[in-house]
Specification:
The complex is a heterodimer.
Chain A lengths: L1 H21 L8 H30 L5 H24 L5 H28 L6 H27 L1
Chain B lengths: L1 H15 L4 H14 L4 H25 L3 H44 L3 H18 L2 H12 L4 H8 L4 H9 L9 H15 L2 H13 L7 H29 L10 H47 L13 H18 L5 H27 L2 H4 L6 H27 L5
Helix pairs in contact in B: 1-6, 1-11, 2-9, 2-11, 2-12, 2-14, 3-9, 3-10, 3-11, 3-14, 4-5, 4-10, 4-12, 4-13, 4-14, 5-12, 5-13, 6-12, 7-11, 7-12, 9-14, 9-16, 10-12, 11-12, 12-13, 14-16
Classes of the chains: A mainly alpha, B mainly alpha.
Chain lengths: ~160, ~400
């Protein structure tokens, strides 16, 4: 019984270690790995901005309720905070990597500001629908540019 | 005529009651990341739950006793105790996810923080479990859950390229942006979402509540074999909506508010109102079912008096367990844990624990002492054994895949 328990514990530890080695928390050591790691946070930010654009477009077209758009935008803000926190925690391996991270952080910050403006517009806090939609589109373009750079670096 | 209406009502509530927060979230996440390439996993899950529920319903109809009473008698207290612990914990996790789902859906409709809705939702579940008749709670939530058919309508309104959609479903490929480990992790999640153990406890104990006998076997078969596959089609509609709206824009679903966006895109505010009602009904209905299942499993295992057909004072242990589970579920959610993450874990752990509930039912369904001439036939047993292998494989692979993919991230 004790042997079986010990074997089960060893197997669990082994699986956990395997998870650390394969999972997202693994350390990066090559430019390719670094680009892939940064791309995960940038993709998360892009996904949040895409969702925000959809919610704003639907509200402008009277296809959704303000409460649903407001909650969607709030959650997009949460996702962007997660992406930003991931990028902030990241330790670059060289100068080029540090530049990529800074570009990603700037684009994510722009996206956070655009989503915050969108929420303010939905809550009647000023701005125009066209203006916030344009702001989200610009933020999306900035994230796409960073994503493209990281994709090319990851492919090398 | 009355019997025909009874069958129709049973089928409709089976369709409306098929979906819960696990199906809603998992199908939308999968559609946004993998398109329709995991349709096979949903289909396997639907066949599996039909097989599982049909056997459990027949066992109850023939023996007049619910699942856990028989499992304890057949396997003995030690083996069935392991079974009880695993089933109870998974059920508690699912209950927590469902209450969280009710709160998130109400937040979408009201903008009020989910943490304010959580106690309200848990209290409402308790009041209904305490006061409402079994048939009423089952039928009302099941019929209101039918408003989720708006997902199927939305797929049509989004005007998809049907040939392409069918091709991606029929000839599945792992998308270039995703790894094989994530693909199979989500296949297991879909399988687990369709085959959640509480559905079988509820189905089997509900048969006792409604006093089924051998003459009701055919009706239960129709409910399962027609209602569940149509419920499965609803699951696929959710995945299709996400595929059509999110996949081209590379938007990954991670919140409940995203799940309803394709419906608003397709049908505007009216469709959105339907889907919000449907999500509240589906999650509230599943909260009722998981709460009752918690009481059923414990009370049946320990031989306590149980059931909605008894007054609460005649089944105190049964009601105390349900109240305790609601308090624990609501308490966990009040720590600000993300209900969507709880849901994702609950469906995967459902798959992990599935052999523990499936195997005993299969054994009893083959035991002439309990079943007489209603034991499984050869064809059914062949299919049941194939599923036993699949369930074991999914159960063994689930946790390593969860670790390797960072829970599908």
């Amino acid at each position: 019984m004790v042997r079986r328990l010990a074997a089960a514990v060893c197997a669990a530890v082994l699986l956990l270690c395997a998870g650390c080695g394969l999972g997202l928390g693994s350390a990066t050591s090559t430019p390719k790995q670094a680009a892939e790691r940064l791309a995960q946070d940038v993709d998360m930010a892009s996904s949040a901005v895409g969702t925000a654009e959809l919610a704003v477009r639907q509200l402008r077209g009277s296809r959704t309720f303000p409460t649903v758009a407001e909650i969607t935008l709030k959650e997009c803000g949460g996702l962007l905070s997660g992406a930003s926190a991931g990028l902030t925690r990241y330790i670059p391996i060289d100068r080029r990597d540090a530049r990529w991270r800074d570009d990603a952080l700037r684009a994510t910050a722009q996206a956070q500001a655009a989503v915050a403006d969108s929420r303010a517009w939905v809550d009647g806090g000023g701005g125009s629908g066209a203006g916030v939609q344009a702001g989200l589109a610009d933020a999306s373009d900035a994230l796409d540019a960073v994503s493209g750079t990281l994709e090319r670096a990851g492919a090398q | 005529m009355k019997r025909l209406l009874g069958v129709a009502l049973g089928v409709l509530t089976a369709i409306g009651g098929f979906l819960d927060i696990g199906d809603l979230v998992t199908n939308a996440v999968v559609g946004s990341r993998f398109g329709m390439s995991l349709t096979w996993a949903v289909l396997l899950g639907v066949v599996g739950i039909c097989l599982f529920a049909q056997m459990a319903g027949r066992v109850t109809a023939v023996s007049g006793r619910a699942t856990f009473e028989i499992i304890r008698e057949r396997l003995g207290p030690r083996a069935s105790g392991t079974n009880l612990v695993a089933s109870f914990l998974i059920n508690l996790l699912t209950l927590t996810a469902e209450i969280g789902g009710v709160a998130l859906a109400l937040q979408l409709a009201s903008s009020v923080e989910p943490r304010l809705w959580i106690p309200v939702a848990a209290f409402a579940v308790w009041v209904v479990v305490w006061r409402a008749k079994f048939e009423v709670l089952e039928d009302v939530t099941g019929l209101l859950g039918l408003t989720l058919l708006v997902f199927a309508v939305s797929v049509v309104l989004l005007d998809p390229d049907w040939a392409h959609l069918a091709h991606t479903a029929a000839a599945p490929q792992i998308p270039a942006t995703e790894g094989a480990a994530s693909y199979f992790y989500y296949a297991i999640a879909l399988f687990g979402a369709a085959m959640t153990p509480y559905e079988v406890f509820f189905f089997s104990s509900g048969a006792v509540e409604e006093k089924w006998g051998p003459k009701d076997i055919s009706q239960s078969r129709i409910n399962v074999l027609v209602g569940f596959p149509l419920g499965g089609l609803l699951s696929l509609s959710i995945a299709a909506c996400a595929t059509l709206v999110f996949l081209p824009q590379q938007i990954e679903v991670s919140t409940l508010s995203q799940v309803v966006l394709p419906v608003a895109e397709a049908g505007g505010k009216l469709a959105l109102a339907f889907v919000l009602v449907g999500i509240v009904a589906a999650t509230f209905g599943a909260s009722l079912e998981t709460t009752l299942s918690a009481g059923y499993t414990i009370a049946q295992f320990f031989g306590w008096s149980w059931g909605k057909f008894r007054r609460p004072s005649q089944a105190p242990g049964f009601h105390v367990v349900m109240i305790a589970c609601l308090l624990v579920g609501a308490g966990v959610l009040m720590t600000d844990v993300d209900p969507v993450r709880v849901t994702e874990f609950s469906v995967v752990f459902s798959a992990v624990a599935l052999p523990l509930t499936y195997l005993p039912i299969l054994l009893v369904a083959n035991d002439p002492e309990y079943m007489g001439d209603q034991v499984n036939g050869r064809v059914l047993n062949g299919l049941a054994l194939v599923f036993l292998v699949l369930i074991l494989a999914a159960s063994l692979a689930a946790i390593p895949l969860m670790i390797a993919t960072g829970a599908g991230a």
